[in-house]
Specification:
Helices cover 29% and strands 19% of the residues. Helix 3 runs parallel beside helix 4. With 330 residues, it is an alpha/beta fold. The longest helix has 26 residues. The protein contains seven helices and 13 strands. The strands form two sheets. Strands 1, 2, 3, 10, 11, 12 and 13 form a seven-stranded mixed beta sheet that branches. A six-stranded mixed beta sheet has the order 4-5-6-7-9-8, with helices on one face. The structure holds fe (ii) ion (FE2). The site of fe (ii) ion (FE2) has 7 residues, from loops.
């Protein structure tokens, strides 16, 4: 009885959020188009996660508001990262909807797709289907030719390493082969003396108030909501280097800082590396607090000595300065 009531309340809240977000772009004065915060920006990119697209006009509409905002940038973005759970089920129809919508907008010429757990649930849910479909739509939607679900990219010369699950579980299935590949790519990337951006849909186990922040269950095992079995091995590689910015999504949280009265922070400083957990673009879970509006993410601006993360609601075209974070490059 109680769970039925909770379901009804949550459905009503989602409905209200949807209406508010859909009308927001028409009622809210656009504060400012995307443009660099100051002189000397060497590269900038937008990053969003968990768009959960399918043939649904609300989800696609919300997505399109964001793309429109990115395409209208005064200072053209050098890349856009879609950090996993791009689709709701990984079926071809979902990917086609994403691809068709994305291709309507000229944003950057360097769009980067990362595989999320929902993206591995299409077709017969085999790694073979997922790999083939992801490779196909990476080419179709962004023009990027890749040969696996994990790959490297660059944003104006800044190295980007994307990890991807090789299974269909909620956590990430990362093979020893991928871990070895990651170790070797990190070694190459760090030699450039630049910040290195590591993309993975799932955050490291225990970060951003996991495992509790996954389902708000204090009895969850320590790896719940995180990368899972391979978390420690990947972390050990990341910890060897300076200026690593690890970008995840997956938790479906909003934007939050430690002084927000929530139990988590969207950006964590771990000394030599930072963990950035992107807010959920569509339907963040309202139970966690923070800024839980639809359409949010960050614009990353890279300068000589720092990376500025600028929180933005792309759907409404507004900056959310309260959640901005500056990462010093050492
Ligand atoms: Fe998701």
């Amino acid at each position: 009885m109680l769970s039925a009531l909770v379901t009804v309340i949550r459905s009503v809240m989602v409905a209200i959020m949807t209406v508010v977000t859909l009308i927001a772009p028409f009622t809210q004065q656009k504060e400012a188009k995307i443009s660099h915060k100051k002189e000397g920006c060497r590269a900038s990119f937008a990053a969003v996660s968990d768009t959960h697209l399918k043939n649904n006009f609300i989800r696609l509409g919300m997505f399109e508001f964001g793309l429109q905002d990115m395409a209208e940038a005064q200072d053209r973005l050098d890349a856009v990262i879609f950090n996993g759970d791009i689709t709701d089920s990984g079926d071809t129809e979902n990917w086609q909807a994403f691809s068709d919508t994305l291709k309507k907008y000229d944003i950057s010429g360097n769009n980067i797709m990362v595989l999320g757990n929902h993206d591995t649930w299409g077709g017969d849910r085999t790694p073979a289907y997922t790999k083939e479909t992801f490779i196909k739509f990476s080419k179709e939607a962004t023009g990027r030719e890749i040969d696996n679900v994990y790959f490297t990219a660059e944003i104006n010369g800044y190295p980007v390493i994307a990890l991807g699950s090789e299974g269909d579980s909620t956590d990430a299935t990362i093979s020893q082969e991928q871990i070895d590949w990651f170790a070797s790519e990190m070694e190459k990337a760090s030699g450039k003396g630049m910040p290195v951006f590591v993309l993975c849909h799932q955050p490291f186990n225990g970060t951003h108030n996991l495992p509790y922040n996954w389902e708000l269950d204090k009895d969850d095992p320590p790896d719940k909501g995180g990368i899972g079995d391979a978390s420690d091995a990947i972390l050990a590689i990341v910890e060897k280097y300076k200026n690593v910015i690890f970008i995840s999504g997956h938790i479906h949280a909003g934007l939050s800082t430690e002084d927000d009265g929530t139990s988590y922070s969207s950006v964590e400083n771990h000394g030599s590396w930072y963990s950035v957990n992107l807010p959920c673009y569509e339907y963040p879970d309202v139970r966690r607090g923070g800024n839980i509006t639809n359409g949010t993410g960050y614009v990353f601006e890279i300068y000589e000595n720092e990376v500025i993360l600028r929180a933005r609601n792309f759907a409404t075209g507004t900056w959310l300065e309260k959640y901005d974070v500056t990462i010093e490059i050492k």
